[in-house]
Amino acid sequence: MPENAPLLELRNIGKRFGAVHALRGIDLQIISGEVLALLGDNGAGKSTLVKIIAGAHAPSSGEMFLAGSKVSLFDPRHAHDLGIETIYQDLAVAENLDVASNIFLGRERKSRMLGFLPILARREMRREAASALEHLAIELPLRQVVGELSGGQRQAVAIARAAYWQARLVIMDEPTAAIGVGEHEAILKLIQNLARSGVAVILVTHTMPDVWQVATRIVVLTRGEKALEGKTEELTEERVVRAMLVGRESDA
Amino acid sequence: MPENAPLLELRNIGKRFGAVHALRGIDLQIISGEVLALLGDNGAGKSTLVKIIAGAHAPSSGEMFLAGSKVSLFDPRHAHDLGIETIYQDLAVAENLDVASNIFLGRERKSRMLGFLPILARREMRREAASALEHLAIELPLRQVVGELSGGQRQAVAIARAAYWQARLVIMDEPTAAIGVGEHEAILKLIQNLARSGVAVILVTHTMPDVWQVATRIVVLTRGEKALEGKTEELTEERVVRAMLVGRESDA
Amino acid sequence: MMPNELRHHPILQAIVDQGVLIAFVLLVVFLAFVAPHFVSTANAFSILIDAAPLVLLALCELVVMLVAGIDLAVGAIAGFTGAIAATMMLQGFPWPIATLLALLAAMLAGTLQGVIINYLRVTDFITTLAGLSIFSSLTLIITDGEPMNINANGFNALGEGHLLGVPTQIWIAAFIVLVVALWLGLTASGMHLYAIGGNRVAAYRAGIRVRRLRSFAYAFSGLSAGIAGVILAAQLATADPNAGRGQELPAIAAVVIGGVSLFGGRGSVWGAVLGALILSTILDGLVLLNISPFFTELVEGVVILLAVMMGHLRKRSSN
Amino acid sequence: MMPNELRHHPILQAIVDQGVLIAFVLLVVFLAFVAPHFVSTANAFSILIDAAPLVLLALCELVVMLVAGIDLAVGAIAGFTGAIAATMMLQGFPWPIATLLALLAAMLAGTLQGVIINYLRVTDFITTLAGLSIFSSLTLIITDGEPMNINANGFNALGEGHLLGVPTQIWIAAFIVLVVALWLGLTASGMHLYAIGGNRVAAYRAGIRVRRLRSFAYAFSGLSAGIAGVILAAQLATADPNAGRGQELPAIAAVVIGGVSLFGGRGSVWGAVLGALILSTILDGLVLLNISPFFTELVEGVVILLAVMMGHLRKRSSN
Amino acid sequence: APQYTFGLLLSAMTPYFATIKSGAESEAKKLGVQLLVENGNNDSATQSNQVDTLIARKVNLLLINPTDAKALIPAVEKANAAHIPVVFIDRKADGGHAIAYFASDNTQAGAQACQFLANHLHGKGNLFMLLGISGASATNERSAGCDSVLQHYPNIHVVARQSGHFSRRGGLTVMRDVLIAHPNLDAVYAENGQMAIGAVRAAEAAGRLKNLTIAMIGSGSAGETQLVKEGKIALSVAQQPAVMGALGVEAGYNYLNTGTVFVPVPLHMDYAPGQRP
Ligand SMILES: Nc1ncnc2c1ncn2[C@@H]1O[C@H](COP(=O)(O)OP(=O)(O)OP(=O)(O)O)[C@@H](O)[C@H]1O
Ligand SMILES: Nc1ncnc2c1ncn2[C@@H]1O[C@H](COP(=O)(O)OP(=O)(O)OP(=O)(O)O)[C@@H](O)[C@H]1O
Ligand SMILES: [Mg+2]
Ligand SMILES: [Mg+2]
């Protein structure tokens, strides 16, 4: 593994849904410890790109390299193994399971029954979940089934889930969309803490102030294509917003 | 109908979900032409209250008066008839129908086949939908099924739906959560225009700047109870945020 | 493979989506080559006559499955309708009146199911399974377990007669198909069925009377099952105490083969018709080829599986 | 009506949710009063013996319905398994080996269905409907349409024998119930079944091997159906060419009565067992009460409907 | 006289078995016997469970029409062990002890029907065998009877063997297709009356009835008899289900009072006009 390779590299990624061309020729590098803001108008392709990086969608074309080595046959399971955690915009939680089960879903803690049968360590998971939520300044009814939670509470579950695991890359697709004022601040702090400890973060958001508060780099997508890329300190909000809209105008 | 009665009045509204007490003793008046910001932390009960006003949930206790007369046996159909339009937080669009069908769902335009059979005027609805979206500065692939749209695009569909109909009260539960920067501005403008033309607007949001930009009055919910109420110009952001959190602390 | 504009044309899209159509065509071509006398007017009518009641039952399932329901009682209601019509004719009612009253009973039966499901909130599966038991039983009771002869020629003509050289029952089924196609395709309530199946909560919030419309879907299902029952009885000039039994799975199979989803909101009349045609063509082919009865089900199962897989492959490759 | 802490206790909650339990108790009490000889060890065993294979088939449906599937082939696979075991014993294999191989075949049959559904993406309904046809047909072919005698006493003891005074088949069913209860309640893969049924996309994104686990659910279904088939064959000392036919709807009915959802993600082992017990108690009561065969289905349908409605009323009043 | 309770276990509730039921019921009424009638839905497991339940119910006598000759052996043995006498109706189980057996011989019926057809065709022609439900014992035995005769007639070609599932509609739909596939069909052998009626309708609709000789194994029901009278069906080898049911009850009643009797039920041959050999 080359020492100075970016954590993640996308080359010429494209994605079609039937006739819809959601992404075209996306090149992207993500470096450990940076916070990359992925911006763009509605329908620009941000979530599609996020899902590809998370392994939830297969790209129609292009290649991905993680820490210098090509990834293929990629799915969310591999993404987890490689240290990629994702908060999806369309949360996708198991509504019929409780908070702790959702946080640990797919990576449950186990204990041994009769010394050899692996069974769920429910109590331990609930305890861990509670402390993880506390860290994030989130208060949730732990035993309630997620389907009975409010919109913001569900989002908090998804955030806690992604934050809990030791990751190399955390992808957050509009994590603060439905989130209360206090929790909003906690999430921004979380992002900064993650970056400080060397984790790469991809943040998708429509809240411009957040971008300038936490992001180190900005990529703007317009209609599935990369329209602008640069360091946060080198870009102004005006220029970014214009890129989102101008891209659109020049295309239309 | 008493001339000076509030458009909508809630008296002592409560709502339980099994053991969960989501709302308690809510009194609320909404006056034509005002923009009421309904604020509160995640899980405070905002969406529950919104659903009760929209007829989507029946309250467990309390009474509702619309323009001075008591409403009973209330469902979304009645709400529409009474001029209440709602953008729900959990959008709930028919994913298998296209944009125009969703905007007109339940109130389709019809024409007569053979002079007497009422059939759907699909083309007319599509045309109307396109112009409604244009008004809102929203660009959408009209023929695509809503399930294939991006998160923000779906939200735009819900907004267009609520904005299209001549309403007396428009309720918006976090309408800008997933919405792009340009559309965000358009929605704020829409709210102001609605209020100016005498429509009452209830806005639920976690974005404080929006509140001070458009709201005339603020109500804060904390753990299902009304914690603060007042004119926007008389309240500071600090005080509002504290009400959300303090309520919580004093309860805990 | 196809220019984008073309691909988005609704009719073309429907055909591409219906990869099963291609499977059907292949099936027909195959049988035309190997099965003696498969290509003949008599055989075409034979397939269509067998398909007619199945198509009607498939329409029942289509409509209730669009709203994420299921109707296991369609066969039982069909048998029940035949028995009622026969009894009334025995009691001296003129056949058109007996038939209309029997169809009314069928619609009431369906409505009753719809009301239990949507207002008393028993699940669709349980209610219609109970309906299956209850209406089968009522048929046995009405007929006293014996086939009842029907002597009214007008009635029997519904099953045996011809119009412009085409068997009456094919006309009847075609007419109902057309009505349902117009209903689903052109009217608001038709679209509301799709909306309910797509997202019931959204439909409710949009002001659609979900419970009423779902009940209506079951009422229609009862009626269409009743028409199937009339055809079945007329065909044999008999109300058979066991008529319609076991027809629920084939009816559901027909629509599922035709692309209707058990989870609601997806499917078309053409799919339902196609599914029914595939099933009756397979059965026809099995007899023409004189496949041993021990093997008929084996071949049937394999062919259905292949047809659906083929439909699926088509769809995937078009993605 | 109940203090909140109590109401949230998982076991109590489960009982309250299972309003159907109360319906079952009422049914038993009612029959105890009106049906002659209902309260007797012989009759209790008669009900349980009757329920044993149904419970096993209900477990099949429970597991596949948790992942929003359905298995229409369970009865056919049961019959198929009996036929294979009988054939092998006829060919001189010792009965334990014949039984194990037959169960292996059953599991393979289920796995095959699972693979077709999850990897070739044919819908659950169509695949298992084809399975129903295919395995029914294979049973006819293997047995050549004639019932096959089974003379191995050890094998037949699985259906006729007793252990500690309790019929063997009740032990077998109880053991499998326990295994499934532990699987679903205590293990990760058990919980993953619920997750898949609750939200398949979420489960996939959480890294659950959705297709593999769903295939496994069908493999289990095949195995459990196979065990039911062994019991049925042992009970009759015969591999019947039509054994298990028509058992798919009762099996699904049992779990749905017990609160399992056809749409996935909801249901418990206890519900499935309860549903099977309700069905076999009703059938037993019908015989004891000498309900005329024309009326049996009528009564059965009505009682099922009442039981489920009662369960539902309980739930609503507890809200 | 003592009040007896008998259980009558029928394998299914098709018209044929409904006739057994009504024959048995009217006899039971005459004798003051309470009769419990069960429908096994063609399922051996169901029927043997019904036997269990009736044993628990402590009936005095069981009249069993087994769904299957072998599968019901354990159930009959259980009845024997509980000292409840058993009478077989229409079919028997291959094991266990019964005090009486009232049946017509299915194998013989099949043989007689096909012998008639063979004679009628002068040993030459195309025959369609319209079979019952696959795997049902009635189907197996009737087919075996027919086949045993046909093997002596190499020039009779069985051009199709298809199942009409013992139902009228099954007979109709299958016959329609067979007529299409075989324009030179001469004769039809139908394994029950319901299917034969369906086949007659198909042949009539296709205008082929005149050229067809149809023989069936009937149950003597009105609809069947009518078609025989009209000459549309050449031969009905009619079983007498009502007689079987009545005799079964009578014999059981006598047995409980006195001792056992075996009464063979004669097959009733019903010829169309001019067909009597
Ligand atoms: N269907 C339900 N069953 C049980 N509890 C529910 C249900 N719906 C909501 N609740 C509970 O009611 C409370 C209020 O929920 P609500 O959705 O009104 O919150 P909210 O103020 O809109 O929060 P957010 O800002 O996150 O949208 C929460 O504690 C939630 O868990
Ligand atoms: N499953 C799908 N089928 C067809 N088209 C799709 C599908 N998913 C996404 N698209 C299309 O791809 C484009 C990009 O969608 P995407 O969700 O990536 O947008 P986004 O940038 O995340 O927007 P938002 O800010 O609204 O979340 C949109 O035009 C959308 O309609
Ligand atoms: Mg997005
Ligand atoms: Mg909310």
TrEMBL record, chains A, B:
GO molecular function terms attached to this record: ATP binding; ATP hydrolysis activity
Give one Pfam hit by family name. ABC_tran
Q: Write down the SUPFAM superfamilies for this protein, in alphabetical order.
A: P-loop containing nucleoside triphosphate hydrolases
- Species source reads Igneacidithiobacillus copahuensis
UniProt keywords (A-Z) are:
ATP-binding, Nucleotide-binding
Does the record carry Nucleotide-binding as a key word?
Answer: yes
**Name used for this protein in its record:** Sugar ABC transporter ATP-binding protein
**Can you tell me which residues the record assigns to a coiled coil?**
none
- The ABC transporter domain covers 8-248
Q: Does the keyword Transferase apply?
A: no
Automatic annotation (TrEMBL), chains C, D:
- GO MF, one annotated term: transmembrane transporter activity
Per UniProt, the keywords (alphabetical) are: Cell membrane, Membrane, Transmembrane, Transmembrane helix
Alphabetical GO CC annotations of the entry are: plasma membrane
Report the domain of life of the source organism: Bacteria
Q: Which CDD domains match?
A: TM_PBP1_transp_AraH_like
Write down the InterPro entries for this protein, in alphabetical order. ABC_transp_permease
UniProt main location, coarse: membrane
Stated membrane topology is: Multi-pass membrane protein
Which residue windows are transmembrane per the record? Answer: 20-39, 45-67, 97-120, 125-143, 170-195, 216-237, 249-265, 295-313
Per UniProt, subcellular location reads as:
Cell membrane
Q: Which PANTHER family match?
A: ABC TRANSPORTER PERMEASE PROTEIN YPHD-RELATED-RELATED, RIBOSE IMPORT PERMEASE PROTEIN RBSC
Q: What is this protein called?
A: ABC transporter permease
